[in-house]
Design the sequence.
């Protein structure tokens, strides 16, 4: 989380979904992060490029650049940015819009928005978590919104009330010529280590499970959108095939363990 000025507290750290480090609150600046680091760009899937930092920052997540014929969308956010990374992304067509799954990944979103003159789409339910307000931010309301041709933000509401996933209709083209679709989920539906399942958590570090009613609502909202792959928040954390079935069986398993009766 990036703040506009020095302060004594970090509200997103003090929230029960996160924590303050055992040695107390620590602060740094983007200038300090640039020392000894470089940007990393690597293909993650058809039409999707991963963007990260080496050494990694924050919790090691990477962003994803969705490259389409009508413009590029940056999904999720890393804290790191420098002039070389901006130039390399410009060579890929730049960034026309930015969308971020949830507040833990807001990072240096205003720096990125200004570097590429791109709007940042955030669900209005998470507005109070924005620490650095700027005219580049577009707060949207409701269950879904289109941010490009075949690119739909869905307010799944898992992890945070404004938690959103991105569906790309034209992602994952199939050998039969049909569109497979892709779901970019961050850690709203987090791809777990065996990469056949996802999971749903209110807090990851503090192991607080998400409420079953929230998971059910999320399943209802994504039901109209087909997808083959699910892209999680970290390098290679991808469900590669039959993504719709993977999310459904993940939810079935989750609800079986989360509930104390026979409901599913």
Sequence:
């Amino acid at each position: 989380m990036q703040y506009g000025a020095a302060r004594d507290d970090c509200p997103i750290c003090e929230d029960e979904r996160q924590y303050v480090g055992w040695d107390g609150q620590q602060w740094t600046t983007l200038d300090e992060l640039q020392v000894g680091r470089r940007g990393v760009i690597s293909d993650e899937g058809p039409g999707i490029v991963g963007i990260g930092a080496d050494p990694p920052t924050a919790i090691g997540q990477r962003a994803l650049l969705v490259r389409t014929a009508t413009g590029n969308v940056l999904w999720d956010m890393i804290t790191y940015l420098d002039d070389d990374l901006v130039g390399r992304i410009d060579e890929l067509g730049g960034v026309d819009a930015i969308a971020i799954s949830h507040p833990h990944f807001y990072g240096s979103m205003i720096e990125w928005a200004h570097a590429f003159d791109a709007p940042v789409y955030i669900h209005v339910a998470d507005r109070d978590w924005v620490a650095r307000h700027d005219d580049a931010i577009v707060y949207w309301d409701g269950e879904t919104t289109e941010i490009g041709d075949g690119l739909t933000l869905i307010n799944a509401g898992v992890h945070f009330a404004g938690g959103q996933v991105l569906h790309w209709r034209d992602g994952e083209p199939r050998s039969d010529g049909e569109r497979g679709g892709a779901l970019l989920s961050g850690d709203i539906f987090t791809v777990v280590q065996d990469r056949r399942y996802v999971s749903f958590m209110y807090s990851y570090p503090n192991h607080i499970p998400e409420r079953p009613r929230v998971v059910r609502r999320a399943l209802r909202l994504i039901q109209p959108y087909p997808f083959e792959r699910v892209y999680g928040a970290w390098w290679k954390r991808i469900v590669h095939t039959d993504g719709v079935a993977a999310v459904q069986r993940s939810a079935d398993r989750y609800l079986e363990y989360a509930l104390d009766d026979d409901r599913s």
Remarks:
- Residues 228 and 243 are 5 Å apart (CA to CA).
- The helical segments are 11-14, 30-33, 83-91, 109-116, 212-222, 243-258.
- The chain has one domain: 23-258.
- The chain has a mean pLDDT of 93.
